[in-house]
Amino acid sequence: MLKQPKLVIKEVSLAWTFIKCKDNQSFVKITIFASNFIKTILTMNQEDFFKKITAHAKEYGFIFPSSEIYDGLSAVYDYGQNGVELKKNIREYWWKAMVQMHENIVGIDAAIFMHPTTWKASGHVDAFNDPLIDNRDSKKRYRADVLVEDYMAKIEEKINKEVEKARKRFGDAFNEEQFVTTNPRVLEHKAKIEEISHRLYGAMEANDLDAIKQLILDLEIVCPISGTRNWTDVRQFNLMFATKMGSVADGSDTIYLRPETAQGIFVNYLNVQKTGRMKIPFGIAQTGKAFRNEIVARQFIFRMREFEQMEMQFFVRPGTELEWFQHWKQERLAWHLSLGLPAEKYRFHDHEKLAHYANAATDIEFDFPFGFKELEGIHSRTDFDLSRHSEFSGKKLQYFDSELNESYTPYVIETSIGVDRTFLAVFSHALKDETLPDGSVRTVLSLPAMLAPYKAAVLPLVKKDGLPEKAREIMDMLKPHYMLQYDEKDAIGRRYRRQDAIGTPFCITVDNDTLNDNSVTVRNRDTMQQERIPIDNLTAFLHNNLH
Ligand code: GAP
Questions:
Q1: Is 212 inside a domain boundary?
Q2: 145: domain CATH number?
């Protein structure tokens, strides 16, 4: 098994804290009991994990740093020949579940560029911000809240060291629970964390940028590069990328790369409703690129500056939205579970404090090797977006409900999931180093079969005696239906390992007996069991086993 990152701390017993959650256009501070957030940021040895995942993803053609020959571009990645297949399969699996399986949901593909007023109406121009601070000596820019969080993480490391020292000293008699609740040094560290988090999240909640800077100064936090405390003031930094367009009707030429795909759906609500004669409740789905100028971007494809979302806005009658919210919570969780990963890897994190436009919100979190983190957001967005677009555009975005004989602005339930984050979830869970009975180690990527880049590899045992020709016949038979690889180079064992490493569920080996009995050996990636199957049954075999 891939070594799990070392836990730095098991539990933080703060009574409360705030977490920040990027829920659509604004950062929302949420009060939660017990510090899951602090626990999460401290339970990871992220670097080891990301090194292993990044190296495998690169070595096997899944993900490359963007423009790598120029030393890459921070938080931007390119998908290689295998990655693009896995990503496409994730997208199609979602599309099938959301659009094909729901008669009342249709898809669109809106442009990335949108009229600039879109982002005024949605609130992104005014409220899509991170607090930033610069060090004047190194000229480096940091998220002010993250500098403080890193400082707290260091105190937690000290607690952890105390615990490890005591464990060594007391051996089997060591009672960790008792130690962390009574040891004076540990208690002092904990109190310090509690005080800092109270000040930090209090200041964030109040949008008090001076108080955040004062906290950085009081804690004597230095720039990791220059080592100095020569900080600028804290400023709010908008996360949208701006660019220029030749001519825009109102004379302003600044437009934005969309930070979410959702707004493309809202502005097309009436077009789709009218042309599709859609009856409420109905949904509009979309997949596509989104862009955010993330400041802390050191988590591989978890937090990217260019990423892909799969979003669905479900339009409902006002007053029914909370029922639909519950419905979509369950339906989306069922989708995740249908991938076959363990149920305990997922949990809901219901938001207790809500953005002003929402009346319910939850995250589906996934237990990444660096802790539970948001994978998907489900939000009951009321009529906020349609009303705002109506106000800013002067167009009525309503629905005439013939059953009620009245017009209203529909309420919206949104489901929003990142393709790249789903990729990271399945990829990181699937990647394992397995020790075999003979002591050798194989690296295997046990991806859900329906997501695997290639469904089978066809391998002639040797490169002679008519075996490659027979293998090519099998390729021709199966290729119209499945993504296949053909490989005749190296010993069969090495070829199996290559396929294991890219997650191919089945290897189909053509040997000398094949020429006599018209059967092949099919090897299962996960069990490594082999079975003899007539070539005529191969299509049915794959059909029955690739889900
Ligand atoms: N329209 C709602 C919306 O955009 P969000 O919680 O900001 O909500 C939804 O984003 C999902 O998009 C997240 O759950 C995550 O999977 C993905 N996502 C957001 N920011 C991302 C980033 N910088 N890199 C990769 N994925 C991201």
A1: yes
A2: 3.30.40.230
Q: Is the CB of 22 under 6 A from ligand 1?
A: yes
Is residue 133 included in any domain, yes or no? yes
- Cα–Cα distance for residue pair 317/407, rounded to 1 Å: 10
- Inside any domain, residue 117: no
Asked whether 416 lines ligand 1 (CB < 6 A), one says: yes
Question: How many domains does the chain divide into?
Answer: 3
Bridge partners, 22 (sequence order): 27
Residue 498 Cβ contacting ligand 1 at under 6 Å: no
Q: Which two tokens stand for residue 433?
A: 């180093």
Ligand 1 binding pocket includes 189 (Cβ within 6 Å) = no
Closest residue CA from atom 2 of ligand 1: 24
Which strands sit side by side in the sheet containing 306-316, from one edge to the other?
A: 105-107, 282-291, 306-316, 411-418, 371-380, 360-368, 346-350
pLDDT digits (tens, 9 = 90+) for 347-396: 999 987 777 789 999 999 999 887 889 999 999 999 999 999 999 999 99
Alpha helices in 227-338 (DSSP H): 262-267, 269-275, 321-337
Task: Give the type of residue at 200.
Answer: L
In contact, 52 and 443? CB cutoff 8 Å = no
Return all residues near 257 (Cβ < 8 A) that are at least 6 apart: 112, 113, 240, 241, 243, 291
Question: Per-residue pLDDT for 283 more than 50?
Answer: yes
For residue 32, give its domain range.
Answer: 5-59
User: Among 38, 59, 80, which residue terminates a domain?
Assistant: 59
Q: 296 lies in a domain?
A: no
382 lines ligand 1 (CB under 6 A): no
Which residues neighbour 533 within 8 Å (Cβ) at sequence distance 6 or greater?
519, 520, 521, 522, 541
Question: Residue 462's domain is classified under what CATH number?
Answer: 3.40.50.800
For residue 6, the CA-to-ligand 1 centroid distance in Å is: 27
In the reported structure, the alpha carbon of residue 20 is separated from the centroid of ligand 1 by a whole-number distance in angstroms of 13
Run of H or E including 540: helix 538-545
Tens of pLDDT, residue by residue over 386-428, are 999 999 999 999 999 999 999 999 999 999 999 999 999 999 9
pTM for the predicted model, two decimal places: 0.82
Tell me the CA–centroid distance for residue 370 and ligand 1, in Å.
18
Domain boundary among the residues 238, 263, 290 is at 238
- Say whether both 41 and 142 belong to one domain: no
Measure 421 CA to ligand 1 centroid, in angstroms. 9
Q: How many angstroms from the chain centroid is the CA of residue 36?
A: 18
Q: Are residues 43 and 136 in the same domain?
A: no
Task: Say if residue 430's pLDDT is above 90.
Answer: yes
pLDDT at res. 2: 36
Centre of ligand 1 to C-alpha 482, Å, is 31
Better pLDDT: 43 or 226: 226
Q: Which amino acid belongs to residue 179?
A: F
